[in-house]
Amino acid sequence: MRQKVIETILLTLLAQSVVLSLVLRAQPQEAGTRYPNMAPLDQYLMEDRNAEIALARGAAPKSISDNAEVLVLNRQGYDTAVQGTNGFVCIVERSWTAGIDDPDFWNPKLRAPICFNAPAARSYLPITIAKTKLVLGGKSKAQMFDGIEAALDKKELPALESGAMCYMMSKEGYLSDNDGHWHPHLMFFVPLTDGKTWGADLSGSPILAFQDTPDRLTVFMITVARWSDGTAGSNGLN
What we know:
Layout: H1 2-26, H2 49-57, H3 62-65, E1 69-73, E2 78-82, E3 89-93, E4 112-116, H4 118-123, H5 125-136, H6 141-153, E5 165-168, E6 185-191, E7 207-212, E8 217-223
Parallel strand pairs: 1-3
Antiparallel strand pairs: 1-2, 3-4, 4-5, 5-6, 6-8, 7-8
Protein backbone atom coordinates (compact mmCIF):
# COMPACT_ATOMS: atom_id res chain seq x y z
CA MET A 1 0.00 0.00 0.00
CA ARG A 2 2.77 2.40 0.95
CA GLN A 3 4.59 1.60 -2.31
CA LYS A 4 1.49 2.48 -4.33
CA VAL A 5 1.17 5.81 -2.52
CA ILE A 6 4.80 6.65 -3.28
CA GLU A 7 4.33 5.69 -6.94
CA THR A 8 1.22 7.87 -7.17
CA ILE A 9 3.07 10.86 -5.70
CA LEU A 10 5.99 10.39 -8.08
CA LEU A 11 3.69 10.14 -11.10
CA THR A 12 1.86 13.30 -10.01
CA LEU A 13 5.12 15.22 -9.63
CA LEU A 14 6.32 13.98 -13.01
CA ALA A 15 3.09 15.09 -14.67
CA GLN A 16 3.35 18.52 -13.05
CA SER A 17 6.94 18.83 -14.23
CA VAL A 18 5.97 18.00 -17.81
CA VAL A 19 3.13 20.51 -17.78
CA LEU A 20 5.41 23.22 -16.36
CA SER A 21 8.00 22.48 -19.04
CA LEU A 22 5.40 22.82 -21.80
CA VAL A 23 4.13 26.09 -20.34
CA LEU A 24 7.63 27.55 -20.19
CA ARG A 25 8.31 26.53 -23.77
CA ALA A 26 5.10 28.19 -24.91
CA GLN A 27 5.97 31.48 -23.22
CA PRO A 28 8.10 33.98 -25.15
CA GLN A 29 11.68 34.12 -23.96
CA GLU A 30 12.95 37.28 -22.38
CA ALA A 31 14.60 39.56 -24.92
CA GLY A 32 17.91 39.56 -23.11
CA THR A 33 18.20 35.76 -23.01
CA ARG A 34 17.26 34.77 -26.56
CA TYR A 35 20.88 34.91 -27.69
CA PRO A 36 23.01 35.05 -24.54
CA ASN A 37 26.19 33.89 -26.25
CA MET A 38 27.78 33.70 -29.66
CA ALA A 39 26.51 30.79 -31.74
CA PRO A 40 28.91 28.50 -33.65
CA LEU A 41 30.68 30.57 -36.31
CA ASP A 42 29.23 28.58 -39.21
CA GLN A 43 25.80 29.98 -38.38
CA TYR A 44 27.01 33.51 -39.12
CA LEU A 45 28.71 32.63 -42.39
CA MET A 46 27.08 32.27 -45.80
CA GLU A 47 28.15 29.18 -47.73
CA ASP A 48 27.48 30.72 -51.12
CA ARG A 49 29.96 33.57 -51.71
CA ASN A 50 28.03 34.80 -54.75
CA ALA A 51 24.84 34.92 -52.70
CA GLU A 52 26.55 37.14 -50.15
CA ILE A 53 27.84 39.42 -52.91
CA ALA A 54 24.32 39.74 -54.34
CA LEU A 55 22.84 40.39 -50.90
CA ALA A 56 25.43 43.09 -50.17
CA ARG A 57 24.79 44.81 -53.51
CA GLY A 58 21.06 44.83 -52.80
CA ALA A 59 21.63 47.53 -50.17
CA ALA A 60 21.77 50.26 -52.81
CA PRO A 61 20.32 50.90 -56.27
CA LYS A 62 22.19 49.16 -59.10
CA SER A 63 23.48 52.49 -60.37
CA ILE A 64 25.57 52.59 -57.19
CA SER A 65 26.16 48.97 -56.18
CA ASP A 66 27.11 47.60 -59.61
CA ASN A 67 30.36 49.57 -59.47
CA ALA A 68 30.96 49.27 -55.72
CA GLU A 69 33.61 47.22 -53.97
CA VAL A 70 32.08 44.22 -52.19
CA LEU A 71 33.42 42.57 -49.05
CA VAL A 72 32.35 39.14 -47.81
CA LEU A 73 32.79 37.52 -44.41
CA ASN A 74 35.05 34.51 -43.88
CA ARG A 75 36.47 32.87 -40.77
CA GLN A 76 39.16 35.53 -40.36
CA GLY A 77 37.06 38.59 -41.13
CA TYR A 78 35.97 40.52 -44.22
CA ASP A 79 37.89 40.26 -47.48
CA THR A 80 37.44 41.86 -50.88
CA ALA A 81 35.34 39.74 -53.23
CA VAL A 82 34.80 42.38 -55.95
CA GLN A 83 36.94 45.40 -56.75
CA GLY A 84 35.02 48.66 -57.10
CA THR A 85 35.45 51.82 -59.12
CA ASN A 86 33.08 54.41 -57.58
CA GLY A 87 34.31 54.61 -53.98
CA PHE A 88 31.30 52.80 -52.48
CA VAL A 89 31.77 49.62 -50.43
CA CYS A 90 28.95 47.12 -49.87
CA ILE A 91 28.95 44.44 -47.17
CA VAL A 92 26.53 42.32 -45.16
CA GLU A 93 26.89 43.22 -41.51
CA ARG A 94 26.32 40.59 -38.81
CA SER A 95 24.71 40.92 -35.42
CA TRP A 96 27.74 42.13 -33.43
CA THR A 97 27.49 45.61 -34.95
CA ALA A 98 24.43 46.15 -32.73
CA GLY A 99 24.47 47.98 -29.41
CA ILE A 100 25.81 46.23 -26.34
CA ASP A 101 22.33 45.82 -24.83
CA ASP A 102 20.61 44.86 -28.07
CA PRO A 103 18.81 41.49 -27.63
CA ASP A 104 19.86 40.50 -31.17
CA PHE A 105 23.58 41.11 -30.53
CA TRP A 106 24.42 37.40 -31.04
CA ASN A 107 21.49 36.58 -33.34
CA PRO A 108 23.02 34.35 -36.04
CA LYS A 109 20.09 34.99 -38.40
CA LEU A 110 20.83 38.70 -38.69
CA ARG A 111 21.98 39.84 -42.15
CA ALA A 112 22.21 43.60 -42.73
CA PRO A 113 23.17 44.59 -46.29
CA ILE A 114 24.73 48.05 -46.31
CA CYS A 115 26.55 50.19 -48.89
CA PHE A 116 28.89 52.91 -47.58
CA ASN A 117 29.89 55.96 -49.56
CA ALA A 118 33.60 56.78 -49.78
CA PRO A 119 33.84 58.92 -46.59
CA ALA A 120 31.99 56.24 -44.58
CA ALA A 121 34.06 53.45 -46.15
CA ARG A 122 37.23 55.21 -45.04
CA SER A 123 36.12 56.29 -41.57
CA TYR A 124 33.13 54.21 -40.36
CA LEU A 125 33.64 50.81 -41.99
CA PRO A 126 36.97 50.30 -40.16
CA ILE A 127 35.00 50.13 -36.90
CA THR A 128 32.87 47.28 -38.26
CA ILE A 129 35.94 45.47 -39.54
CA ALA A 130 37.70 45.90 -36.17
CA LYS A 131 34.66 44.62 -34.25
CA THR A 132 34.49 41.60 -36.53
CA LYS A 133 38.16 40.72 -36.07
CA LEU A 134 37.80 40.93 -32.29
CA VAL A 135 34.71 38.72 -32.24
CA LEU A 136 36.17 36.15 -34.63
CA GLY A 137 39.32 36.20 -32.53
CA GLY A 138 37.33 34.88 -29.59
CA LYS A 139 36.73 38.09 -27.66
CA SER A 140 33.60 38.40 -25.53
CA LYS A 141 31.04 41.15 -26.08
CA ALA A 142 32.54 43.23 -23.26
CA GLN A 143 36.09 42.66 -24.50
CA MET A 144 35.08 43.69 -28.00
CA PHE A 145 33.61 46.99 -26.81
CA ASP A 146 36.65 47.59 -24.61
CA GLY A 147 38.90 46.92 -27.59
CA ILE A 148 37.06 49.43 -29.77
CA GLU A 149 37.18 52.04 -27.00
CA ALA A 150 40.92 51.54 -26.61
CA ALA A 151 41.47 51.76 -30.37
CA LEU A 152 39.53 55.03 -30.51
CA ASP A 153 41.48 56.42 -27.56
CA LYS A 154 44.78 55.55 -29.25
CA LYS A 155 43.52 56.91 -32.59
CA GLU A 156 44.11 53.51 -34.18
CA LEU A 157 40.74 53.96 -35.88
CA PRO A 158 40.23 56.94 -38.21
CA ALA A 159 38.26 60.02 -37.26
CA LEU A 160 34.79 60.17 -38.75
CA GLU A 161 34.80 62.07 -42.04
CA SER A 162 32.30 64.73 -43.01
CA GLY A 163 29.63 63.42 -45.37
CA ALA A 164 29.79 59.80 -44.20
CA MET A 165 26.56 57.96 -45.03
CA CYS A 166 25.19 54.64 -46.25
CA TYR A 167 22.30 52.97 -48.06
CA MET A 168 20.22 50.22 -46.45
CA MET A 169 17.56 49.55 -49.06
CA SER A 170 17.55 45.76 -49.38
CA LYS A 171 14.26 43.99 -48.77
CA GLU A 172 16.23 40.74 -48.45
CA GLY A 173 17.94 41.88 -45.26
CA TYR A 174 17.08 40.61 -41.78
CA LEU A 175 17.78 43.31 -39.20
CA SER A 176 16.21 41.77 -36.08
CA ASP A 177 13.65 39.22 -34.93
CA ASN A 178 11.17 42.00 -34.19
CA ASP A 179 11.58 44.08 -37.35
CA GLY A 180 12.65 41.70 -40.11
CA HIS A 181 13.89 43.87 -42.97
CA TRP A 182 12.23 46.99 -41.41
CA HIS A 183 12.06 49.83 -43.99
CA PRO A 184 14.33 50.99 -46.81
CA HIS A 185 16.40 53.82 -45.39
CA LEU A 186 19.52 55.93 -45.52
CA MET A 187 21.85 56.56 -42.58
CA PHE A 188 24.13 59.52 -41.94
CA PHE A 189 27.03 59.39 -39.48
CA VAL A 190 28.19 62.47 -37.55
CA PRO A 191 30.19 63.03 -34.36
CA LEU A 192 28.07 62.87 -31.23
CA THR A 193 25.49 65.63 -31.39
CA ASP A 194 21.98 66.47 -30.22
CA GLY A 195 19.51 64.93 -32.66
CA LYS A 196 17.32 68.02 -32.38
CA THR A 197 19.90 69.96 -34.38
CA TRP A 198 18.59 67.96 -37.35
CA GLY A 199 14.98 68.11 -36.16
CA ALA A 200 15.17 64.39 -35.52
CA ASP A 201 12.53 62.52 -33.53
CA LEU A 202 10.22 65.53 -33.45
CA SER A 203 6.54 65.30 -34.31
CA GLY A 204 6.10 65.02 -38.07
CA SER A 205 9.84 64.82 -38.74
CA PRO A 206 10.99 62.10 -41.18
CA ILE A 207 14.35 61.87 -39.42
CA LEU A 208 15.17 59.41 -36.66
CA ALA A 209 18.31 59.59 -34.53
CA PHE A 210 20.15 57.41 -32.07
CA GLN A 211 23.29 57.99 -30.08
CA ASP A 212 25.97 55.36 -30.71
CA THR A 213 28.01 56.32 -27.67
CA PRO A 214 30.55 53.43 -27.79
CA ASP A 215 31.46 54.37 -31.38
CA ARG A 216 31.32 58.07 -30.45
CA LEU A 217 28.88 59.12 -33.13
CA THR A 218 25.26 59.96 -33.81
CA VAL A 219 23.35 58.12 -36.53
CA PHE A 220 20.51 59.84 -38.38
CA MET A 221 18.09 57.65 -40.33
CA ILE A 222 15.68 58.68 -43.07
CA THR A 223 13.27 56.15 -44.51
CA VAL A 224 12.68 56.19 -48.26
CA ALA A 225 9.73 55.11 -50.38
CA ARG A 226 11.25 52.22 -52.32
CA TRP A 227 13.56 49.27 -51.96
CA SER A 228 16.70 49.16 -54.08
CA ASP A 229 14.93 47.07 -56.73
CA GLY A 230 12.36 49.81 -57.23
CA THR A 231 9.45 48.11 -55.49
CA ALA A 232 7.44 50.09 -52.95
CA GLY A 233 8.50 49.95 -49.34
CA SER A 234 6.11 49.62 -46.42
CA ASN A 235 4.32 52.74 -45.29
CA GLY A 236 4.84 54.31 -41.88
CA LEU A 237 7.32 53.45 -39.16
CA ASN A 238 7.20 50.58 -36.69
